[in-house]
Amino acid sequence: MLELGKVQNLEIVKRVEFGAYLAPRGSRDPDEKVLLPLKQVPAYAAMGDEVTVFLYKDSKDRIIATTRTPKLEIGSVAVLRVVEIGKIGAFLDWGLEKDLLLPFKQQQTQLQVEKEYLVGLYVDKSERLCATMDVYKYLRKDSPYAKEDKVTGIVYEISEEFGAYVAVDNQFSALIPKKEMYGKVQIGDVISARVTDVKPDGKLDLSIREKSYLLISTDAEKIMELIKEYNGKLPFNDKADPELIKNETGMSKNEFKRAVGNLLKSGKIEITDKNICLK
Fold this sequence. Notes:
The chain is mostly beta strands. It contains 3 helices and 18 strands.
């Protein structure tokens, strides 16, 4: 059976001037064959030989075989580079002569040329191969990682309700819960994180912040820099609204208060009714 979007072994059943026709070994269906262009036919290939090929559609929408190995096939995911953005979507480099279309309706964010994104491969209603950023169903849940392990992954979706969805090692399903979000995270970002939990179904929960006691000095330094940007007087203190603190520092109110307490104890600042000032 010929499988569009799959790497498979096919038999040479006919040689022609412009290439060779391939078919599944033992196939009796005269219409079940596909062309392998001449420049792709291996040297010294003979009738009956098997060739490993990938099946896709050419610029004229005809199924064609290639011996080149794509970076992506049906059922898998890969990080691909955007080479162009056109009227119907973005075009991605997937290792073949014809770039892969990522339709606008399959995008999770506004894409940038030359930036890389995690995508899957599917066959659309017109029987054409297209990319999709809806990769959740393609990701594995059998990662080798345990709680407190350090991991690297790519952000492929952001939910205002739940947080940032991440593919660890570009293949394992993970989530940075909203409460663990720190700083600005965007789709396509490659992040380093710590595993905070392994769910019963194998999915990972991540944090892009270290443990609180390790972050106090880092957060304190950040607050010192911010105070200096305000010419030595921060226009709010540790009793400010949590949203204001989050917007200004990227920290939760508790994280901010811990860092401010560290600075106060070390004698670097003083706190007034409305401000935090350098000493």
